[in-house]
Amino acid sequence: MDINQLNCFISVAQTLNFSEAARRNYVSQSTVSRYISDLEKEFGVQLFTRSHRDVIITNEGKTLLPYAIEIVETLSKAKTVIKQMHDGGQGKLTLGCDVTSLAFPSKCVSDFSGKYPNISIEVKPLDCADRNQAITGSDFDFCFMPRDMVPESSGIEALVTHNEALSVVTSKNYKFKGRKSVSLRELAGEKLLLLSEKISPIVYMEIMDLFRTFHISPTVESTFDDIVSMYVSVSSGIGVSIIPQSLATFTSNKYTDVFPIEDADTNIAYVMAWGKNISNPAAKLFVEAVKKYAKGEDNLYGL
User: Percentages helix, strand, coil for the chain, rounded to the nearest 5?
Assistant: First the structure.
């Protein structure tokens, strides 16, 4: 059995016409007849009944048809994947980004797109509801997120990309104006405007843990499910926020100021995670591009 026999069988089954099957496959009608006869001998059954006027597919032929189509389509996909791998630089990648993962993926995508302009990249927000499915499912090729968000699974690989320190964001001309940094203790009486635990669980928990370490009871004025609403509130002077440094820099504007936290280790490890069974031919190229900016190749690990 070979792929030409299966292609001709599919054409005859779909058209019930040997001449049309020959035309579709660019072979003679006698070749189509021979291919069908060879398949019938191999399976030991009759796939079609033929008369001078009609071609009728048998029950055995109907049973074979979906399997034949699947084999042909699978081989076609394999050829496409291998060609893309050989050619390098064709295809599509879909990235999922946690709301606090902005600056690092942006840098990687910019570099990758410049090097592989024929590989399109789509960036989507990462839903925290089912992180295992997000990483190993079909919606995303790669997911950027805090390391502690990655579920323990033998089917997941991750690359530590960088560490993020937390920073304080205030409105312009707030009382910290002119300072190079802010102490966590100075935030004890401040109204906090934070990204919600729902959309940024690791950052939220890290902030709460920091206050507990300093025996401070924080005053959380509001939590937000989107960065825009939070920034409008901060810039309006309703309160102050604490977010990762690169996010603060990435979204800072003339209405806000950013201050590092001076008296605490606020680093949060971030990763790019993906399913071990990923088959996208562009994936290997993207991993190599990310390693260029990541902390180091020794930070590649399985979970």
Answer: 45, 25, 30
Residue 296 pLDDT greater than 90, yes or no: no
Residue 231 CA to residue 82 CA, distance in Å, equals 47
Strand partners, 121: 93
Q: Are 112 and 123 in contact (CB under 8 A)?
A: no
- pLDDT for 302: 40
17-66 pLDDT per residue, tens: 999 999 999 999 999 999 999 999 999 999 999 887 899 999 999 999 99
* CATH topology classification for 166-260: D-Maltodextrin-Binding Protein; domain 2 (3.40.190)
- Distances, alpha carbon 215 to alpha carbons 7, 166, 297, in Å: 73, 18, 38
pTM of the model: 0.66
Contact 130, 148 (CB under 8 A): no
281 touches 85 (CB < 8 A): yes
Beta-carbon neighbour count of residue 101 at 10 Å? 27
pLDDT of residue 86: 62
Measured distance CA(216)–CA(237) in Å, rounded: 22
Architecture in CATH for domain 3-87:
Orthogonal Bundle (1.10)
Q: Domain spanning 91-163+270-302: which CATH class is it, in words?
A: alpha beta
> Strand pairing of 91-97 and 55-57?
unpaired
